[in-house]
Amino acid sequence: MRERDIKTHDGGNLALYSYGTEEAPGERRVVLIGGAFLTAQIYRPFSIALSKGLGEGWAVDVYDRRGRGQSSEQPHNYSMATEIADVRTIMDATGARNIMGHSLGGAVALNAAQAFAGTPHQPDKLAVYDAAVNIDGSMDTGWIKGFEDSVNAGDINQAMAKVKRGMEAGTALARVPEPILVGLMAVVSRTKVNKLFRDLLPTGVGELKAAFDESDTPRDFSVLPPNTHFMVGKKSPQFYKVTAARLNRAVPGSTLEVSPKGFHGSVPAAVNELVSDISDYFKS
After folding, report:
1. CATH fold for the domain made of 2-136+215-283
2. Residue 95 region by backbone torsions, left for phi larger than 0, else alpha for psi between -120 and 50, else beta
């Protein structure tokens, strides 16, 4: 693994981790954009597995988005435009020509690819898994205000409960009464992963609003590359399935794949079936 500190356009920095062949050419490099409440280190097993699946001469570049890991905090004027500019910065630093996004990182990937359409940064290939995009009302975003209020009030357990219910609508977890779920969050928050989740909750307010509440920024996903590959887990919450189907219909020539054993965390968990499918897509 190679670790680098990349300077951003606004004076910040992004922690970049590269796996695989260090000097891989741009057409054989994949920029991996992680989801909300997760750091680049959480994606280390997947990054290693994907680089091996792609084979000799390929590399996977994953970076900490703003407000996590060793990267700068979110700037005061943070928005989706910040995320798009950071994707451009990483592509320039690595020369990468391919992009993959997971969950909210999928929203960043799709918005960046839309912004790059017709420019030198337009990706050769674009894949997203369980992209967290509110397309044609596929998600009820009414819970985000309550989530933000809970974070600002310092009620972290309630904030965790609200984001779990909001992001996993339709699941058994989302049907648990909120007071009970708040108590459950207080118990499970002691685990290593949930401690990280708690630490990144303030960052999550900004990124969730940027991904779901940007109604003033029209997104014409029909301009995405025609070989865009949408993936969703069969066991993922219904929101992601509805979103993937709508995105697939919006992008002429794109493909949609349902991972039979896939769940929302399949990417950071480096599920073999998914790693193999993604490797095949980028190599084909």
Report:
1. Rossmann fold (3.40.50)
2. left
